[in-house]
Design brief:
Oligomer: single chain
Strand order of the largest sheet: 2-1-5-4-3
Number of strands: 24
Length: 423
């Protein structure tokens, strides 16, 4: 274009100078004003030529390609319209410019405009007729966007512009009059202690675009029999009871959040282990009831109970059996009466211990229960006229069912209660 214009100007200059010399030598009577008028005509012609060239299709496409390669938003906004309306903010064309990731993709876009007068049915090459020339421009066809989010409460930003808040999950935010291109879409969710922020790239090319923004979090509920336990989040008191910890969140799912429970048992406060929040919406948090005080109470109660059984054997009396329900007292005494009273042996408990590793403690229907393995060492001997004739030592495990009643542990049953008494 510059070469053509330079040659045109040089040629015009030569013609004008030659004409001036010729007329001056042969037509001396012609006024100099004529040459001034001719100069003005020539200048107008040159201006028209320049204007025509600048507004030709080829010149426009070259200018557009150069502006896209340089990411000159201001220049592009002047070369384009949206629905045939002027683009007021140069940054509005940024998404379109950012769509092209290489000179090759820009060149392909320009070729499509040149060949088809359009690109992807969202950009049209148009011209506007003026008095003498056609002015070329590109017209963006309006794109529409519908946005939803998976929780509710998310503030949505489109290219750093706040476009609204998704009040409830599934609610829709609609955005019209978008220029085709690549947009940065961001969602922010402030959730008391946990703030979420996520950014994604969104290509808006179709006439109608739908997008669901998914925060990588989860709402959780706690499953525990200890409904009045206090929930701790990362070691801090949430001031929420387990029974009220329902659909709380969203919470991060990367394991950075850990939940635990603190419960006030009759034998003292106990804190559970921490459980990481991952993909499960219902989190079971077990609490190990055992502490030193509970072990001591259970051991004391069961030692007294088994000691009383051996007393009942020696005295042949049900009334001395302690720490058991009435049904169990009757059951044990009947077994002792049928199998062991007739032998007239002497019985003595030497050692009573609890295998807590093999025992199970649980809380069911508002009651503390346990299945406990009790290890009993005892002596069996026979005496005549106060003289001990023989003695033998035994050890046996008793699977004992107990429950917490009125502030103490009571024995409810013994699985297959028998004694080894062979001398």
């Amino acid at each position: 274009m510059k070469d053509k214009l330079f040659k045109y100007l040089e040629k015009s200059k030569e013609i004008l100078v030659s004409a001036y010399k010729y007329v001056k030598e042969n037509f001396k009577f012609i006024d100099k004003k004529v040459f001034i008028v001719l100069g003005i005509i020539l200048a107008l012609g040159i201006g028209f030529y320049i204007g025509y060239e600048k507004n030709s299709e080829m010149f426009f496409l070259n200018s557009l390609q150069s502006s896209l390669e340089k990411k000159d938003f201001k220049k592009i906004s002047k070369l384009a319209t949206l629905n045939n309306k002027k683009i007021k903010n140069k940054n509005d064309v940024k998404p379109f410019t950012n769509y092209f990731d290489s000179k090759q993709s820009i060149s392909s876009f320009i070729k499509s405009l040149k060949k088809n007068q359009k690109w992807n049915d969202c950009v049209l090459l148009k011209k506007r007729k003026t008095l003498f020339i056609d002015k070329y421009y590109i017209d963006f066809k309006e794109r529409k966007l519908s946005l939803t989010a998976n929780f509710g409460g998310e503030t949505i930003f489109l290219n750093d512009k706040n476009i609204g808040v998704v009040k409830d999950a599934g609610d829709i935010i609609k955005v019209d009059a978008l220029i085709p291109g690549v947009y940065d879409i961001k969602a922010k969710l402030d959730n008391k202690k946990f703030n979420f922020e996520k950014v994604e790239k969104l290509i808006v090319m179709d006439e109608n675009n739908n997008f669901e923004f998914r925060i990588n979090g989860i709402k959780v509920s706690i499953d525990t029999p200890f409904q009045d336990a206090i929930v701790y989040i990362n070691g801090e008191d949430s001031e929420i009871k387990a029974k009220d910890f329902k659909n709380i969140g969203p919470l991060p799912m990367d394991g950075s959040v850990k939940l635990s429970l603190k419960y006030n048992f009759p034998w003292g406060e106990i804190m559970s282990k921490e459980i990481e929040v991952r993909e499960l919406p219902i989190i079971n948090i077990p609490i190990d009831m055992l502490n030193d005080k509970l072990k001591s109470e259970v051991k004391t109660s069961l030692k007294d109970f088994y000691d009383s059984i051996f007393e009942a054997l020696n005295k042949e009396s049900k009334s001395v059996i302690r720490g058991a329900s009435e049904n169990l007292q009757n059951k044990i005494f009947n077994i002792l009466k049928q199998k062991y009273f007739i032998l007239k042996n002497t019985y003595k408990a030497k050692d009573i211990s609890i295998d807590f590793n093999q025992s199970e403690f649980k809380y069911e229907k508002g009651k503390y229960k346990a299945n406990v393995v009790v290890v009993v060492q005892y002596d069996v001997s026979k005496q005549i006229l106060g003289v001990k004739l023989q003695e033998k030592e035994y050890e046996k495990n008793f699977f004992t069912n107990i429950s917490y009643e009125n502030g103490k542990w009571q024995v409810n049953d013994i699985d297959n209660f028998t004694l080894d008494l062979t001398n």
